[in-house]
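HUMAN: You are asked to prepare a plain-text protein record giving the amino acid sequence and the backbone structure tokens, both parts labelled.

ASSISTANT:
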Amino acid sequence: MPVPPIILTHEFSGSVVAKGANDDLSASLLKHAGFQQISDWHGRRHRLPTTTPDADKVAIATHAADMLRAARYHVTLPSSLDATRISPPAPALGPYAAGTELLRTTERIRAAENGADLQRAVDRLLHPEHGALERVREALKVTSKQIEQIYDHDDEACDLAYRFDYASEYVRGAQSELVGSEAQLRRVGTASQDQTEARTRSSELPDHQGAALATSPAAAKAKVSSTPGSETAQHNAAGHSPHFSGPRR
């Protein structure tokens, strides 16, 4: 019987999970890489704690995949967890650390392979309290107020303060336009993960079970004979043409 594939993936909680390692050898390799084994009613799984730093998650997942593949296991590893496929770190931009973080977020979005990966990356932009858009809106608003305080009674400064305030409201409009998008991405991610697991379970189905679930020729024939008009079809197939009355003279 073929060995089922081992799938390493991100969960919405941020934890990295390995599924499909049901034998002792693959389980031992995952534990050696740094995964913790969990056995419950879902079966045997391996997980990295949610507190594991992102860089360590990538390093551990890549190392685990390399060892499993060397042992001739088929491994599915998303690019977001593959150190060989992740873009090089964003360059340090000196005092523009916020720009560096946004570059990292952009790279995460670009590397996303499914809805779950994309949702986690986009959350860095859209989180209502800590997301990048909210921080930018807040900074623009504060800049407007500071201009008014520092350059009081200056017409040109008032105009500049208004422009910053208008920009902050423009960002708020962008946030309003994207309300609910995170929930939609989450649903897409869940559906994508369910489909992946369904395909995995299908690939794990032994050949004799697949044969048992297949419809037998006898059953198919019985089903055809029970449908309306089937008697006529069988009668015609046997060579007995239906009787038609001739034209009236």
About this structure: The first strand starts at residue 6 and ends at 10. The CA atoms of residues 4 and 205 lie 9 Å apart. Residues 181-204 form the longest helix (24 residues). Residues 203-227, 230-249 have pLDDT under 50 and may be disordered.
